[in-house]
């Protein structure tokens, strides 16, 4: 999609507008550790995580980053205590209901990726509503990976392609990278240029495995609830120092 030119606000003077990442992906780690450090229950960390995410979305929009993708819940996260899983599902639903009008006013295009059919029915309803009501928005693409796993995404793409081959609709020789990408959840989104992971772990954790092939990785010790404009500024400044070669010299 083409993003409507917006009046970019407050881009820090040391950042070059032309060299901003088009698409930033975030692994929002450290909500639990942040809460523990404050002597609060883990769920308070997730609550504050939502505020941090809103702040970064606004910052992306203000500074001219065209797409933001956040890893909200992985296929592995079902293994957490049931109370925490329930809390997160209810939180996602509540946030969507609460924020939808503002997202619409802000011209945000919301998209959810992952195995959405396995989510609670009431959450699926809010997801469908938020996606359909923001479908034509062009201010920023905001993608939330929920019940998402990179391997699972690749397997479901293989299955869809194999079905077409079996039905005689596709010849195996026609399968190339472009065709494969059209079967991923992210078919309409460019690959991330920059992956930010908070809280210090040096892992990709099954996030956007295919799409991350040439992403620049930025890992910070800051816990997600503390990841603010200034932390994002530092990440973008580090990104602009990188020399992206895409396998060439
Ligand atoms: C990782 O921290 C965080 C999560 C698994 C949940 C992230 C979800 C949000 C910030 C809410 C987003 C809401 C919407 C609607 C998109 P952790 O719990 O693994 O922290 P720890 O590693 O310190 O335990």
What attributes does this structure have?
249 residues, alpha/beta, Undecaprenyl pyrophosphate synthetase, six-stranded parallel beta sheet, 6 strands, binds farnesyl diphosphate
What report would you give on this structure?
This protein is α/β, with parallel strands linked by helices and 249 residues long. It has a domain at 24-147 and 192-239: Decaprenyl diphosphate synthase-like (Undecaprenyl pyrophosphate synthetase, 3-Layer(aba) Sandwich). The protein has helices spanning 31-37, 42-63, 82-105, 121-134, 150-166, 177-181, 229-241; strands spanning 23-27, 67-74, 108-113, 140-148, 194-197, 216-219. A six-stranded parallel beta sheet has the order 3-4-2-1-5-6, sandwiched between helices. α1 (31-37) crosses α2 and α3 runs parallel beside α4 (121-134). The longest helix is centred in the middle third of the chain and has 24 residues, at 82-105. The two termini are 30 Å apart. The model has no long low-confidence stretch (mean pLDDT 95).
